[in-house]
Specification:
Layout lengths: L1 H17 L3 H12 L4 H8 L8 H23 L4 H11 L15 H14 L4 E3 L4 E3 H4 L31 E3 L5 H17 L5 E10 L10 E11 L4 H16 L5 E8 L2 E10 L15 E10 L1 H6 L8 E8 H9 L14 H4 L3
Helix pairs in contact: 1-2, 1-4, 2-4
The structure holds 3,4-dihydroxyphenylalanine.
């Protein structure tokens, strides 16, 4: 009986090997494993064997059965639809491949990287300070008198939390200027320890928050703030950095200008402008008078220096605070119909940039 079983196995395997359709495999299965198949009938004969032989032959018969079943299962994959497709693809080497879709950095992330590089070239250091801040850093230390209506210009989000006796209420930073206070306090402290004079070239790019949401405003947006403090820092330095930034970011042919303005934390204060790229400063539909507004700047107010532990008789400085979304749109000459789209996660929109 042993030889018979091994013969059945060999026959079945060679038939399976030769088969070239799923139907043929089905027939082989019936022929060997079906109710009146060769293996089934042989197994029925086992009853006639002497008792001692039965277990050994039983094990062999089962092995033969699983071997045939496995061979059938393996062979059937040759004829499945999936396999056919893979084989065809392998054969047609001229088929164009499927390109994996590549993403890219968000428009604002790209702008932040570019702005950072420009300022780093002239020695500015990027810093990060809290986005959830006390009123002290966002307003009071920046020379906003207690309860002064100037606070209303910054439509601030207040955190529902008990105010600190000294530092006041907790807010979402409405501007990056709070970073000026943090930086000057930190550097004044360092200078005290080291005996070295204070020398600040800060670039603070961060998320800022205001209670505003319409087609041209988002509740969260980005600002980039510069602060330079040292001995003998003057308006000429401010103008030089402004001009360098304008030419690096917008193009060599663009000009910059400053004009008087008012901020609590700078004296004198300025609005900064860049010449219009469309009419080259002559005046057109876009800019009207040849200039586009960049944002605020000024010489750090003596009170602000004092609030941070710096002596205004020794140190002077300038600061500026501009909007990332704003300069980006000015540079690209794009108008986004609804600025809120920038942060809506709509891939169709973001893919355009
Ligand atoms: N913090 C001001 C704002 O959010 C912008 C600003 C103006 C920043 C003048 C400055 C500055 O550093 O000197 O509108």
């Amino acid at each position: 009986m042993e030889e018979e079983l091994i013969g059945i196995k060999n026959a079945a395997i060679s038939f399976i090997f030769e088969a070239d359709s799923a139907e043929e495999l089905e027939e082989i299965k019936l022929q060997f494993l079906g109710r009146s198949g060769k293996l089934t009938l042989t197994m029925k004969e086992m009853g006639k064997l002497p008792k001692e032989k039965r277990p050994q032959i039983g094990v062999l018969a089962n092995e033969v059965k699983t071997t045939i079943e496995e061979a059938l299962a393996n062979a059937s994959t040759r004829f499945s639809a999936h396999k056919k497709a893979v084989i065809q693809k392998k054969i047609d080497v001229t088929n164009p491949g499927i390109k994996p879709s590549l993403g890219h950095l968000h428009l604002i992330t790209q702008a932040i990287a570019e702005i950072t590089t420009i300022f780093e070239h002239i020695g500015f250091k990027r810093v990060r300070y809290p986005e959830i801040e006390w009123d002290h850093y966002a307003f009071t230390a920046l020379n906003f008198p207690e309860n002064h209506p100037a606070r209303d210009d910054w439509e601030t989000f207040f955190i529902d939390q008990k105010a600190d006796a000294k530092k006041g209420q907790v807010v979402l930073t409405p501007h990056t200027s709070s970073g000026q206070i943090r930086e000057m306090e930190r550097m004044a402290e360092l200078s005290k320890k080291s005996g070295e004079p204070v020398n600040i070239r800060m670039l603070n790019i961060a998320k800022t928050y205001r209670r505003q949401s319409d087609v041209s405003h988002t509740a969260m947006f980005h600002q980039f703030e510069t602060l330079v403090v040292g001995k003998d820092i003057s308006i000429a330095d401010l103008k030089g950095v402004l001009d360098y930034f304008v030419k690096s970011y917008f193009g060599e042919n663009r000009k910059s200008r400053i004009r008087p303005y008012h901020f609590q934390f700078t004296e004198p204060s300025f609005e900064t402008d860049v010449s219009c790229g469309v009419c080259d400063g002559k005046g057109c539909k876009l800019c009207k008078e040849g200039w586009l507004e960049l944002g605020g700047a000024g010489m750090v107010h003596p009170n602000v220096l004092r609030n941070c532990g710096l002596d205004p008789k020794v140190y002077t400085g300038f600061a500026s605070g501009w909007g990332v979304e704003r300069v980006l749109m000015m540079k690209e000459g794009i108008t986004i119909d609804d600025l809120r789209l920038l942060y809506s996660n709509k891939v169709e929109f973001l893919e355009q940039f």
